[in-house]
Amino acid sequence: MTSCRNLTTGRYYLCVINLANKLNEPMEISDNGKSTNIAFDHSTTVGRKEPSEQPQICTTPFRRMLLGLSKPMKDYAPLIQAIASLIWPLVVAGIVLYYRKEIKELLGRIKRGKFLGQEIELEGPLNRLQKSAEAAAPEIPSRSAVTTGDDVGYSAKLIPLGSGDSVDEVLETARAFPYVGLMMLSDLIDKELREIVYSQGEVDRPLPYTVANVQRVLREREVLPPHLLRALRDFQVVRNAILHVPQSVDPDAVIQTVYSGIKILEALQRTPRGVYVVHKPGVKLFSDAECANERQDVSGVILEMGSTEPKTYHIYPTTRLNYREREHVAWEWSTAKRWGLTWYRDPDTSEIKVAFSDSVEFVGRPLFAVQ
User: Fold this and answer.
1) One domain for residues 300 and 236
2) Most buried residue, 73, 78, 81, 280, by CB count within 10 Å?
3) Tell me: the pLDDT tens digits for 217-238?
4) Are residues 114 and 259 in the same domain?
5) Are residues 14 and 34 in the same domain?
6) Count of structural domains, the chain
7) What distance in Å separates the CA atoms of residue 367 and residue 371, rounded to the nearest whole number?
8) Beta carbons of 242 and 186 less than 8 angstroms apart
9) Contact partners, residue 354, CB within 8 Å, separation at least 6
């Protein structure tokens, strides 16, 4: 049996390792006249003393290092768990740091709430909303001062709303459930804006309903006075801030927002706009005065215009088949198709009448389905 004697400590153990790897058999190690049998298990590369005691060469960190051994993975589990527990706080801190300007702006919109567990106070936007809503009220004339325009329906007419009942319902709900009342009020304001914006008339460019589009159209066409436009913007800022913070916002601030929003709603209800309601869809159109030659792939839709008596009615060509009676529609047109002199039989009187002498296609979408 080869032995490693008369060597320094470091070389002595390296010699032992090399010999064990080569011979793959128990090894006798002599140290100051004391002999020890060492057996090596190559599946774990850990030396063991026969029969059951721990091997001498693997009992200290220095000797484990000489053998090229590493700690089992279970020894690193606490370290890995500690590192993992630090990842999410670091990610959140990074996001807050990156979006610090946006977060600062958001925090300035809320009167009182909690953000990341911290109590915050809301500042100027609520006061600005109060002032702009008060300033907007006198800018819109009362209903009695608004004219209905001509009988073709292009100019201003009013839509009756029964606003008293709606406002009372919002106020009653807001007193018990402020957030629900605010949502109800937002829906009523949204309804008014749709009616106003989509009564302006669009040709060959259906307008998607977005806050940006509404503000642009109302501003460019000077449909609403400046103070009311400003009040709408202030209301949207405060409402969005309240709804994006969980129910930690001061309920008094929500009710205050509702009161200011009601003033905006009442001003919008007094704003002139066109009224276009489907009276009769799917009316047959004819190219001759005897109504013998029906026009193909087109029908007429009779629209009721105006909110006061007497009503006015006009028929327009359309290829759309999904109109329903009493449905409010947008005032939208397409120049892709055109029809000349056309007749129809009045569905109410059965009288043959001229529908139009020349017309492009009416394509107005159902008002409250516009996205």
Assistant:
1) no
2) 280
3) 888 888 888 889 999 999 998 8
4) yes
5) yes
6) 4
7) 9
8) no
9) 341, 342, 343
- The parent domain of residue 89 ranges over 74-103
pLDDT at 115 over 90: no
Model's pTM, two decimal places?
0.59
Helices (H), 198-282: 211-220, 226-244, 251-269
Q: How many CA atoms lie within 13 A of 12 on its CB side?
A: 12
- For 371, the token pair is 């996205």
Q: Within 13 Å of residue 174, how many CA atoms lie on the same side as its CB?
A: 24
In angstroms, the CA 40 to CA 21 distance is: 8
What does the pLDDT read at residue 137?
A: 74
Q: How far is CA 10 from CA 2, 16, 64, in A?
A: 18, 10, 12
Token readout for 73 is 């993975």
Task: Note whether 234 and 311 are within 8 A (CB).
Answer: no
- DSSP states of 34-60: EEEEEEEETTTTEEEESSSSPPGGGSS
- Alpha-carbon span 356 to 317, nearest angstrom: 9
